[in-house]
Amino acid sequence: MKMFSAEAHLIVCKSTGGRWRFNLELHATEPQSEGVLLLEAHMDQTAYVPVWLCSSTDEPEPFTANFTPDTPLQFEVKPAKGMLPVRGSASQDEEPPCVVSYTCRDMGKTLKGRLHIQTKGTQYSFDLRGRQPVYNPPNRDDLVARIDNRLRRSHKAGDAQQKKTNYVVENIRALQQSTRFAGAQRPKRGD
């Protein structure tokens, strides 16, 4: 159903001669929500939920999708206009008629909004909830710490065979040998 307001006149006629006229005001209020769309996203990430709707007629039906003015800007719907498929014609591989997205920009806050999808004769309403996923801290009983304080045999054998090297002495010897072959003159600083 769609929201609308209208005036009508009700005229009651009696067969023996009497006529009464009544003015009527008809108000169709906003329809109840079709359901709640819960979108959970981590900080600065976007979550998507497809909205699967079908035409209420035997033909594909054009629709428009929009939010109420109090819906936060973190919610988005695409496409804003499109066609609802005929009931039973949608296959598993087909894309949904519209997709709602939520981008998390606030810590610890559940945002609320409302989505309206309107066709020529029907209006669908969905409550929206956007939040961060619930954090479940790790259970201490599930955590097992293992520390191995023993060396493998291959490491122990390698330590005994490894020769200890004094790199300073080796560098001095290499420098002395290179200067002997270069003509016994040391290079001056600045050359």
Offer a concise description of the structure.
Helices cover 13% and strands 37% of the residues. It is mainly β and 191 residues long.
Explain the overall architecture.
It is a single chain. The protein has about 190 residues and is mostly beta strands. It has a domain at about 35-130: Immunoglobulin-like (Sandwich). About 15% of the residues lie in helices and about 35% in strands. It has two helices and ten strands; from the N terminus they run E-E-E-E-E-E-E-E-E-E-H-H. It has helices at about 155-160, 165-180, and strands at about 5-15, 20-30, 35-40, 45-50, 60-65, 75-80, 80-85, 100-105, 110-120, 125-130. The strands form three sheets. A five-stranded mixed sheet has the order 3-10-9-5-7, with no helix packed on it. The longest helix is centred in the last third of the chain and has 15 residues, at about 165-180. It is rod-shaped, with a radius of gyration of 39 Å.
